[in-house]
Amino acid sequence: MATPVSVPRQSDDYTREAAEARRDFLKEQAGASLEHVGSYSFDPAALPGNIEHFTGVAQVPLGVAGPLLVNGEHAEGEFYVPMATAEGTLVASYNRGMKLLHAAGGVTTTIVGDRMQRAPAFLFESARGARDFGRWLDEHFDEVKAVAESTTTAGRLQDIEQYSASRILYTRFNYTTGDAAGQNLTGKATQAACHWILEQYDGIDRFFLEGNFATDKKSSQINMLRTRGKRVVAEAVIPDRLFREIMNSSSELMYRARQVSNLGGFMSGVNNNGAHSANGITAMFIATGQDVANVAESSAAFTYAELRENDDYYYSVTIPSLIVGTYGGGTGLATQRECLELLGCYGKDRVRKFTEIVAATVLCGELSLGSAIVAEEWVEAHDLHGRNRP
Amino acid sequence: MATPVSVPRQSDDYTREAAEARRDFLKEQAGASLEHVGSYSFDPAALPGNIEHFTGVAQVPLGVAGPLLVNGEHAEGEFYVPMATAEGTLVASYNRGMKLLHAAGGVTTTIVGDRMQRAPAFLFESARGARDFGRWLDEHFDEVKAVAESTTTAGRLQDIEQYSASRILYTRFNYTTGDAAGQNLTGKATQAACHWILEQYDGIDRFFLEGNFATDKKSSQINMLRTRGKRVVAEAVIPDRLFREIMNSSSELMYRARQVSNLGGFMSGVNNNGAHSANGITAMFIATGQDVANVAESSAAFTYAELRENDDYYYSVTIPSLIVGTYGGGTGLATQRECLELLGCYGKDRVRKFTEIVAATVLCGELSLGSAIVAEEWVEAHDLHGRNRP
Amino acid sequence: MATPVSVPRQSDDYTREAAEARRDFLKEQAGASLEHVGSYSFDPAALPGNIEHFTGVAQVPLGVAGPLLVNGEHAEGEFYVPMATAEGTLVASYNRGMKLLHAAGGVTTTIVGDRMQRAPAFLFESARGARDFGRWLDEHFDEVKAVAESTTTAGRLQDIEQYSASRILYTRFNYTTGDAAGQNLTGKATQAACHWILEQYDGIDRFFLEGNFATDKKSSQINMLRTRGKRVVAEAVIPDRLFREIMNSSSELMYRARQVSNLGGFMSGVNNNGAHSANGITAMFIATGQDVANVAESSAAFTYAELRENDDYYYSVTIPSLIVGTYGGGTGLATQRECLELLGCYGKDRVRKFTEIVAATVLCGELSLGSAIVAEEWVEAHDLHGRNRP
Amino acid sequence: MATPVSVPRQSDDYTREAAEARRDFLKEQAGASLEHVGSYSFDPAALPGNIEHFTGVAQVPLGVAGPLLVNGEHAEGEFYVPMATAEGTLVASYNRGMKLLHAAGGVTTTIVGDRMQRAPAFLFESARGARDFGRWLDEHFDEVKAVAESTTTAGRLQDIEQYSASRILYTRFNYTTGDAAGQNLTGKATQAACHWILEQYDGIDRFFLEGNFATDKKSSQINMLRTRGKRVVAEAVIPDRLFREIMNSSSELMYRARQVSNLGGFMSGVNNNGAHSANGITAMFIATGQDVANVAESSAAFTYAELRENDDYYYSVTIPSLIVGTYGGGTGLATQRECLELLGCYGKDRVRKFTEIVAATVLCGELSLGSAIVAEEWVEAHDLHGRNRP
């Protein structure tokens, strides 16, 4: 095999010229034109910290669903929700659900948890070493907290969970992180804390900054139980009449289907007994500059429904590990910032508002797809709108 | 609450004018400019079937990592991999892993399973009804298959799995789907099959097209066990010397960290005992027009490693539910098609090639992040490249 | 440390004298009297194959609950169910549930699956080797089956499931096993089959008879999905009136509690969303000579309930991995055989009858404890009957 | 259906006569003799609180394995371990493992966690109600603790965990429980606490004492993560030489098999990546009067092994939810007490010693079966000892 030819870089690599040089290189190497990729409307100088080897953009179609009516503690009123997707019916389906929930008086949203973590693992000669260290860590929490927080303005260490197995102590350093999603600040803070710990405490055989207990970009029972990012509930009470008028369905039929899905999901070992929260979350994440790979854990959800005596349908979705930010990451990029601004969610002190809007959107999509399934119109809906698909 | 004001639509809704009208409407409603969102390089006439309420685009920064050396059965040789992301260090990290694996002779890839499903649930008066129906279904498989396949040119019904609980029979109709990801064609085919079944078989109390046994856009044990989309293995043997030269690490250190992560992941109930496959998958999915919400299930993975006697490191990733297509969905959109063409993966008879490239890319990213963690340089790497992040 | 003093054995080790010698030895070594342990009513000559170092017996108190009314396909009519336990309230609670279900017309039971397995894992140089072997295995099923079945009169190899990861092929050799639980016969048959396979097929790098895919004496999602031992459903429809008269409860209250337990169980990652099937199963297993360690997997269950329009309560329990036998193992021991005979379940062609009785018993216990919890009388019930407990 | 004939009871129901009357009744009803069941050596007057409808006993064969060498913090020295089972090879297999570990210097045991819980669920009108109650509960912990502890001498409320979903707050009231397993005392204490809470706090819509978050007698991820009963680690370092001399195996072969089992277990969704801890636990539970149904959760385990540079094998088992007591329940019964006394574990201040002996026993069994599997002698071992089995 010949020496590999690296992707070309330049001393000032975040320019239109550098990007064009890469597109030319790729054309030469692979014979592929990247004309549309090279069509973008912003200055690449803004991109350091967001990408390397910048070559252009993916243009992802963006639609808007709404108005979504939210009765939150941070988001109140109507919102038009930007969704970037190439999946036919997605925007239409969420839009339909928003119509239903608007007629029902809106979606109530509540943030019930907030913690981002880094999860170092410490190894000792034996289990006793791990246990004794755990006690020491409890006793020195204030000092550890001070060291960790010295590295960040936004992060606050809330507590350190301990999970013991063999000669290993797995920990979770839980932080609040302001308006940032916070994976990076918690990484820095925890590393600083761990370096301090390693200096202070004798007998640590080995240390790893991660040991699969924060499960960044993966779905896990621990994050479903103990929260990662925001834990948020969206709920509503919908009269049976509205299901019949708007959704070609009924609350009783919805409820029966829910019971079958609950059992199915329990048996299949799914991380979400609901319908398809990932659809709405992904489309909003792409539109607003979230770290889209966090769909892996953000797609977990708990659905809980009740058929009330008057045939009202109580419906709720709990998202236990929703990773969002309104500051940092991709939120400041050109189209992404515009989309956050459309929601009034760009910048500081907005992340809780944004969280509630995402959760409310998810609820609308759940009821819409759920209705479609029970009405056996699911396939037909796709036929109508999704005609590009084989 | 006043009557909600719907997002405006026009009779010919897939035009630049219709999109502009929506942007104007949003500016009026929410005071937000969508100037960059309105900057796109293709004709909206191509969009029906991909989006509703088309308003513009999300411009997602795109970088290229490579060359990736693949020793596949369908992908062979070097590839430059397009990745759309706003996460600093991501492209650099995958690029570094590709360098390592190139030096090691490339990534071997093998598709070991291929099945897309729809999972209807059938209810009966009692468990006996469910069991008896299951037998009937086995006996009439050929007829069911004929009906299902009458609705599709690409789809082939392979088998129908049965999972019994209470008075319900959950089924999985498993198909191969050609070059399409296939969620829609399996939906149509299965619905047709179910309608035929409902006509033929007495005693079905109720029927739902989905009951949380296909778990589309959700992660589940059943899909990790029984495959959804492609089941693909990427593997390589890397000399210890390369870890030391390129990664500031060693095979022995990598292996010890892996053991801790294996136990941590088993205890935490994670769907992926590896590092961060979602990062590479998501970036490639956005770039190439995949259904990005499928990151939910595509992010599941099994990592298995061995430290060989000569200190070589055998490393493998198995992705049990990778949902990809090279035809239909968003694959034909402007930038998305260009990115597929960059890989030589646009259109018919390319999906297996694309599958292998994705898997090989994932392996490179696993070794790169894994090395960074063991070298304790993880945080520093983010500091350097990710400076936009709080 | 001095040389360890082994437990004494004799040439004819299954005699009262040999047992007494061991009790004497233990008295000398540990100063403990084993007078009651030495009180048993059978001839130790019957024990080879059941225990080594026979020293005496554990005398476990045995009560009887009933009559249990079963409307099964193999068990029909009334049964008095022997339960060996030291847990106060257990027998009373099951007895109360049996009264309820008797009044409701009995428990309907259905065996919906039957497969016992051994799960060898095969390693190859790479994933391709594993995949190719998988195809060969499919093609040679008939030969493998013949070899496997040559070792057993009762066992029949039904199919071989394949689960692929990395360079490993995990398999499940699924058998029916007559009236034996069958772990041993499947072990022998599978080992014979594997030896034949190893002779026939080149390229198997390594082979292990178990790789955590049959999960004997452990609970697993795979066995909950794919059955281990018997998969059996018990179901009943109970009028609301009976809950009020007999259980100090109501169907509506039961149902609401069920919903909360379903969500709780989904979130907590439990292997049984019901109440306490392990109680009844364990007590019956001890009484009837089952392998009690199989409570680990036999305790998994799926509960599914419906509140009908007339306030009837449909309630069902599905036990997906119930390991039982009426022949071999401990079933022929003195008290154990008597208890099986009490149920008309000793010996050949009785295992399905016994399966149904166990399942019906479980259902009664679920409704009884469930009622107690909703009536908030749970603790009081324990106070009354369980006064030996601190 | 004729009126069901209840099992006869007498005013003084715990006498030999009452038991005999029931045996006579059963003979009449079912034609079954219960002669051996009627053979027991203790006075039934001791049984209230342990069983209802006492009819006799199950005589379970009991063998003894040992000496087991334990280097614990509470158990130190050699023990002969009583095991009640009808499974051939079980005692022999544990005995062989004890020989190996004795030669290796014994088993080191460490209790790393101790908490028994009751898990009430509280419902509110909406998620906000649940969240606000959670805060109140935190603020009033001291009062709740005082009320709870007023009902018990042994129980101490350590903390109350909260898990939020929908309009429900699931809690775990975690206690230490002295020498009792503690399910009953935590039940009583928690119910008292809840009654106090219900009086103090307005707005609780509904309350259930259990909602599948303590998962008594069921296996769950939450208990594997957060401990139920004792969390205990057993570990040892075994020279390769001993595997070769005693086990017909080698540390390297053991380790390779472990890797395959780790991956298999992760993929199959098992609650125990080890071999068969349930076997030893069950046999000891029956012998010593534990609540055997707790095998359901006590059988969960985490195995972690390392092949050291000198070919020593570090091996550990972590049991995260071992439910044991040395006081109350069945521990005071005739044979059960004798078996506890054999271990020096009857009565007060012995539960931690007993915990360590159980864990050490489990480790021996894991290495013994593990060796048998890798030596492919597993089936032969059963053939030799288990000849009663079909």
Mind explaining what this structure looks like?
4 copies of one chain form a homotetramer. Chain A is of the alpha+beta class and 390 residues long. In chain A, 41% of the residues lie in helices and 23% in strands. Chain A is built from 13 helices and 10 strands. In chain A, strands 1, 2, 3, 4, 5, 6, 7, 8, 9 and 10 form a 10-stranded mixed beta sheet that branches. The longest helix of chain A has 24 residues. The first copy, chain A, is globular. Chains in contact: A-B, A-C, A-D, B-C, B-D, C-D. Strand 1 of chain A pairs antiparallel with strand 1 of chain B.
Number of beta-strand segments of chain A: 10
Radius of gyration of chain A: 24 Å
Report the total helices of chain A: 13
Strand content of the residues of chain A, in percent?
15-25%
What kind of oligomer do you see? homotetramer
Shape of chain A: globular
Give the helix/strand class of chain A: alpha+beta
Please give the share of residues in helix of chain A.
Answer: 40-55%
Determine the N-to-C terminus distance of chain A: 39 Å
- The helix-strand sequence of chain A is HEEHEEHHEEHEHEHHHHEEHHH
Biggest sheet details of chain A: 10 strands, mixed
Q: Look at the structure and give the mean pLDDT of chain A.
A: 94
Show the largest interface.
Answer: A-B, 156 and 157 residues
Q: Spans of chain A with pLDDT under 50 lasting ≥5 residues?
A: none
